[in-house]
Task: structure prediction
Amino acid sequence: MNSRTPWLERDFFTRDVLAVARDLIGVELHWQGCSGRIVETEAYAVQGDLACHTASRPSAREFVEKQPPGAAYVYLNYGVHWLFNLLVKGGGRDGLVLIRALEPLQGIEQMRARRQRQKLTDLCSGPGKLGLALGIQGQHHGMPMASPGRPPRCGLRQGSEVLPVVSDVRVGIRQAADFPWRFLARDHPHVSVPLGKVPPVGRA
DNA sequence: GGGTTGATGTTC
DNA sequence: AACATCAACCCG
Result:
């Protein structure tokens, strides 16, 4: 009854990046005393996906080469937001999974303080929001998130509920904008953008 | 409600 | 120069 599910191991991240992105829906992300249920992810593939950082950044290709499955890929977006990804490699397609939204579970007061917002649905309903809510920064780039190797209070564990998963196009990108590689819990109140509501990205 | 715009820093 | 975002601002 009191049994907690085990921490996810490297094998979980040694599969096809699309399978991992889909299977992360419903998984609990634990981060230094805070936690949340993952309700939205996006897959980015090393091969054949121009939207993946590896398509344009040598440093991202080096990261994929040198880091183990389950490593955190963290970077600053638009000079403002820290975005959190997990490295997938050694199974089918290698790639990165962007964690886009959480349902807050633990450490909610700390999340409220960091976000300066009260409503639960304002805390982690977007990749930049959850980065701030959890206190994720550049110093965490490369942190192992799978067992063995992860720090004591960080990691992922299977959730208690099975959530229905649907897929949709990815948010906010111009390259490969038609790939249906975003995964979300159906009708879940904590997602960043509901199913079918991704706005087209404009051009100057 | 919906659409538009500016902030900000790292990478190339 | 581009960018895997967000919130403030306008308009209605």
